[in-house]
Design brief:
about 55% strand
């Protein structure tokens, strides 16, 4: 009976390690598109609404390099960024020595906040499928 307990414990520990290793494998690498913009007053602008207004935003990230692209009223704005991994899902997107955005990454989304208090806007991006 003791032998069965030990084997069962070993199998369970192995399964838990596999599950935990799978959860930690996602990175911020990939292609991202704006999902929504949330304003401090509670209003939310969906991707569909923004697209109707002629606005799209995307990121392409590979390792410590990335590209930001925004289409705004018929104009395309594109520039390169450096991605700095601060650990625990926190990243800084840099343009040279200038901080462009500090983002929080969770699973298939990341977000950043611009402004403070009643002027705060949260931009949420999702991984492109």
């Amino acid at each position: 009976m003791k032998k069965i307990s030990i084997i069962l414990t070993a199998v369970l520990m192995t399964a838990m390690m596999c599950v935990l290793a799978g959860c930690g494998g996602k990175t911020i690498d990939g292609d991202w598109i704006i999902l929504k913009e949330e304003n401090a007053d509670g209003s939310v602008y969906s991707r569909e609404y923004l697209e109707e207004q002629g606005i799209t935003e995307e990121y392409h990230i590979e390792g410590d390099a990335g590209t930001y692209t925004c289409h705004l009223l018929g104009q395309e704005i594109t520039f390169d960024i450096t991605v700095v991994d601060n650990g625990k899902g926190s990243y800084d997107f840099m343009i040279g020595e200038i901080l462009f955005q500090s983002v929080t990454f969770k699973g298939n989304t990341f977000y950043y906040v611009i402004g403070e208090g009643s002027d705060a806007q949260t931009f949420v991006f999702e991984r492109k499928k």
